[in-house]
Amino acid sequence: MLDFLLTSDAIMALLTLTFLEIILGIDNIVFISIAANKLPEHQRGKATNVGLLLAMVQRIILLFFVSFLVGLSEPFYSIKTSWLSVGISWQAIILFAGGLFLIYKSTSEIREKVENPSHDEDQVKSKPIKSLSNAVVQIMVIDFIFSIDSILTAVGMTNGLHPNHNYTLILMIIAVIISIGIMIGFANPIRKFIDTHPSVQILGLAFLILIGFMLITEAAHLSETELFGKTVGAIPKGYLYFAIAFSIFVEFINFKTVKNKKS
């Protein structure tokens, strides 16, 4: 187990996944803060911390559930025609549907953040909260919604790294715990940084489109799909890591350029 966690692939997946979990968790922090700010001041910090801890618990539970489904790789139905051959399994269904969901969700989020960035916040602000228990219930609902794309991202980043699904499950759990811990300790600085540099969150959502596409091709590859006589191959995760690292490097250069111009 330790040998796997210390491999370059596992370390790169852990770093990339933790970064993406934090970026994806920004909206979660904002909405939890909005819900908590409706409470008396002495309860706000408690509501925020409880909300983030609940987010961690919900994501870990969902990780177990989704990982179980992804592990069901035996085909239960096959399609064979003159131009298409595919063995359908629960693993392929989860990966394919998850990929489509990530592409749809991230594209919609990018559009909404560019054209109407305060839409979701206005909806949360309009919901009344009268007690700490009400706030916790609303925070749990918000956490669940934001957990879905987080879990699919984790599956996309780690699927296929090791033949033993338990190893990749532990890697995903570690990334979730680290990211939630960072958000609990640095929620305000992270939120202020994203407010100052909104392009970072847009960049994170753009990464989800790549991960979504990779999940779709992974589903086709694992179900041994043949299209017009051509087998669909898996996209090496190294390509994804390189694209993300290069994009972050370009964004860092942009930060430095803008900062130098202001100074």
Topology:
Elements: H1 2-5, H2 8-36, H3 41-70, E1 77-80, E2 84-88, H4 90-115, H5 119-125, H6 132-158, H7 165-196, H8 199-222, E3 226-227, E4 230-231, H9 237-262
Antiparallel strand pairs: 1-2, 2-3, 3-4
Helix pairs in contact: 2-3, 2-5, 2-6, 2-7, 2-8, 2-9, 3-6, 3-7, 4-6, 4-8, 6-8, 8-9
What does this structure look like?
By secondary structure, the protein is mainly α. It has one domain. Helices cover 78% and strands 5% of the residues. It is built from nine helices and four strands. Strands 1-2-3-4 form a four-stranded antiparallel β-sheet. A hairpin with a 3-residue loop joins strand 1 and strand 2. Helix 2 packs across helix 8 (199-222), helix 3 runs parallel beside helix 6 and helix 6 packs across helix 8 (199-222). It is globular and about 65 Å long. It starts with a helix and ends with a helix. InterPro entries: Integral_membrane_TerC, MFS_trans_sf. Keywords: Membrane, Transmembrane, Transmembrane helix. This is Putative tellurium resistance membrane protein TerC. The chain crosses the membrane at residues 12-35, 47-70, 82-104, 135-155, 167-187, 199-219, 239-258. It is found in: Membrane.
Summarize the structure in short.
The chain has 263 residues and is mainly alpha-helical. The protein has helices at 2-5, 8-36, 41-70, 90-115, 119-125, 132-158, 165-196, 199-222, 237-262, and strands at residues 77-80, 84-88, 226-227, 230-231.
